[in-house]
């Protein structure tokens, strides 16, 4: 069983809408969670990190963490075509190397 | 502009040849990671160094892969002999362990094709 689960998508949303990306993880000991954005043919780019329960906002991005449910999400407000990419969720179990989900492909339709 | 750099960016080689990939972590970072990405397997951890010491290389085929950090500014990943199934994008990432953040920053990757 993969330790970090994501729906592969594609998730299609219209421009200006809110995109909601979800991720579940299996290691209850994980303390750190990350969202990376990866454009086709490019390397993963860190866009959000979250360490405690609740919401963390950065511009149009909001990360949400619920450790009791072992659930992490990323909301993208006012989605733009330039947000079209694959979004990778990652956890750091016990401060070891990151474990990545397989990614959700987001398509923002103009 | 602090970035992880990797060379070469692209490598095409024949089966059986040796391949060496290099990575320069961000100055001041003390952790270095090697990942491999394929369509089928996604991102897989190959090796992990902290303060130049190898901490985890369980994801690496030991008979053909080796990873080293000759100094704090250079990490290498070597494949000898290479096989077609090694074709993938190899990413190096660096971070700083000690602040509790575990954030990692990726280099541009080396796209390896073994024919």
Number of helices of chain B: 0
Number of helices of chain A: 0
Classification by helices and strands of chain A: mainly beta
> How many β-strands of chain B, per DSSP?
11
Mean pLDDT of chain B: 93
Helix-strand topology string of chain A? EEEEEEEEEEE
Could you tell me the strand content of chain B as a percent range?
over 45%
- Enumerate the spans of chain A where pLDDT stays under 50 for 5 or more consecutive residues: none
Number of strands of chain A: 11
What gyration radius of chain B follows from the Cα positions, in whole Å?
Answer: 13 Å
H/E element order of chain B: EEEEEEEEEEE
The portion of residues assigned to helices of chain A is: under 10%
Distance between the termini of chain A: 37 Å
Structure description:
The complex is a heterodimer of chains A (about 110) and B (about 120). With about 110 residues, chain A is an all-beta fold. Chain A is built from no helices and eleven strands. Chain A has strands at about 5, 10-15, 20-25, 30-40, 45-50, 55-60, 60-65, 70-75, 85-95, 100, 105-110. In chain A, the strands form two sheets. In chain A, strands 2, 4, 5, 9, 10 and 11 form a six-stranded mixed β-sheet that branches. In chain A, strands 1-3-8-7-6 form a five-stranded antiparallel β-sheet, with no helix packed on it. Chain A starts with a strand and ends with a strand. With about 120 residues, chain B is mostly beta strands. Chain B is built from no helices and eleven strands. Chain B has strands at about 5, 10-15, 20-25, 30-40, 40-50, 55, 65-70, 75-80, 90-95, 105, 110-115. In chain B, the strands form two sheets. In chain B, strands 2, 4, 5, 6, 9, 10 and 11 form a seven-stranded mixed β-sheet that branches. Chain B has a four-stranded antiparallel β-sheet with strand order 1-3-8-7, with no helix packed on it. The N and C termini of chain B lie far apart (about 35 Å). The mean pLDDT of chain B is about 95. The interface of A and B includes residues 34, 36 and 95 of A.
């Amino acid at each position: 069983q993969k330790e970090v689960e994501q729906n592969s998508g594609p998730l299609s949303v219209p421009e200006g809408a809110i995109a909601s990306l979800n991720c579940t993880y299996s290691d209850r000991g994980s303390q750190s969670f990350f969202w990376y954005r990866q454009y086709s043919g490019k390397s993963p780019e860190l866009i959000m990190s979250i360490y405690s329960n609740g919401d963390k906002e950065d511009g149009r991005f909001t990360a949400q963490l619920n450790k009791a449910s072992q659930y992490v999400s990323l909301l993208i407000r006012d989605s733009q075509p330039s947000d079209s990419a694959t979004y990778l969720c990652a956890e750091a179990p016990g401060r070891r190397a990151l474990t990545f989900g397989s990614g959700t492909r987001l398509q923002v339709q103009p | 502009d602090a970035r992880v750099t990797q060379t070469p960016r692209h490598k095409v080689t024949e089966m059986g040849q040796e391949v060496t990939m290099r990575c320069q972590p961000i100055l001041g970072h003390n952790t270095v990671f090697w990942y491999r990405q394929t369509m089928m397997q996604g991102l897989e951890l190959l090796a992990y160094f902290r303060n130049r010491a190898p901490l985890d290389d369980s994801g690496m085929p030991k008979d053909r892969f080796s990873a080293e950090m000759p100094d704090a500014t250079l990490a290498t990943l070597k494949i000898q002999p290479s096989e077609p199934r090694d074709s993938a994008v190899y990413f190096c990432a660096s971070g700083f362990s000690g602040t509790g953040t575990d954030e990692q920053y990726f280099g541009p990757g080396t796209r390896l094709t073994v024919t």
